[in-house]
Design brief:
182 residues; 3-stranded antiparallel sheet; 2 domains; 46% helix; mainly alpha; elongated
Length: 182
Amino acid sequence: MALRWQDVDFEALVIKVTRSIWRNVVGPTKTKASRKPVPLHPIVAEELKMWKAESIYSSDTDFVFASIQKNGAQPLQPDMILKRHIRPILSELGVKKRIGWHSFRHGLGTMLHEQGVDVKTAQETLRHANPIVTMKLYQQVVVKETREAQDLALKQFLGLPSVSTLGNPRGSQKEEVKAVSS
């Protein structure tokens, strides 16, 4: 939220994270990993360009997401964005779980894991100082992988070919075991 337009490099497609904000106090980022440039996807870059063109706060030193109520002197409050925009949309979509900013980080970590992204790349993407944080806190166990692990263990234990229920959404293991043993 402490990003200023001077931090967005549209040519190189990166955002330079040089500061953070906590309770309206601008300060340094928490870790060295937090200060690394963030790749800016071209689609997001185009959206930001459009936002800058329509924003009344578009000079290099203005906040990217400046508060109109504070005459641009402060960025928008993250909790207000959640309360006024994100949670109402989620409610319309039928999402009952309470979502916070870290929900997005957890979700991204899990999605990266599901797509087979290695831990080091996930760590860099999530901007963790340590890959252990990435592995312990942000990559939820994926059910498919848990089932595959169970399949491998059961196969080894029983000396059978694969008995995975992954291809069978109803989960009828008896039919699959029967088919495998035939």
